[in-house]
Amino acid sequence: MSLGDDHESSGGYAGTGQTRTRLPDSGDAFGDPRRRSSSRSLVTVVGVVVLLIAAIAFANRGDGDSSSSTDGSSGKPDAAATAPSGQRPVKSKSAAGIPSGFAQDQEGAESAAANYAVVLVSADILKPARRPEIVRQVFDADKVSELEKNLDRVYSKAFLEKVGLDENGDAPKGSTYVSRTMPVGTKVTDFSGSTATVEVWCTGVFGMTGESSQNPVTNDWFTMTLQLRWTDGDWKVDSFSQKEGPAPVNGDNRVSTSDAISKAVEEFGGFTYAR
């Protein structure tokens, strides 16, 4: 689930919607007929692999290829909708582990928005002990007091119980609460130098692991819009909202076991995102 769950908000919440999921099937790993892909799936997979190989080959042409497109002055690739800037994403991370020190330009605003989207829809935001630190790091100082009160009210004890967490935001023993967001792309819709409006298209995995979970881990697609302000030498969030999608057609992936999801969350770390 996403922060708003089919709902635009200015400080919404994660993981409250009803979900449907395919539970893992049992059976012989080699003889189970459900592992046989359809011809459509096979063509799709082959097509994706071909595209990936072509992309890797193009990227590996390297600096020595004189045919690489540049802007003629700095040697950087021409700007494109999905091209990375080549700049370092941030100068440092705060004590809270949240990226900081973004550049005061459009690329810096996009990088800030992507990283803040990850934090605002994380499992940590549900923890009362962790939330104030996140709010103070991410939001404009003038908004901190109001946001802390709003989020404390939204993430009440009753809400935490509804998603299976205790009053400290912790999952039951043997379970893991998952709330991990992955930005797919960013778009600046307004920029003035000291303010910016950035849309972040996201996907993510949300829910509680455990065979008896009433809120199983599922995926979601949503777009967050963040109003940013340059203050105290960095981009900070002034306000944000969220809407569902754009969402693709679900693939034919075999659903993993709850244990496999828990293990993946523990073993695979997140990223610092940059435009």
TrEMBL record:
The lineage of its organism: Bacteria, Bacillati, Actinomycetota, Actinomycetes, Kitasatosporales. Residues 96-244 form the DUF8175 domain. The chain crosses the membrane at residues 42-59. It comes from the Bacteria. Signal peptide: none annotated. InterPro entries: DUF8175. Coiled coil: none annotated. This is DUF8175 domain-containing protein. Keywords: Membrane, Transmembrane, Transmembrane helix. The keyword Acyltransferase does not apply. The keyword Transmembrane helix applies. Residues 1-37, 61-102 are annotated as: Disordered. Residues 65-75 have a biased composition (Low complexity).
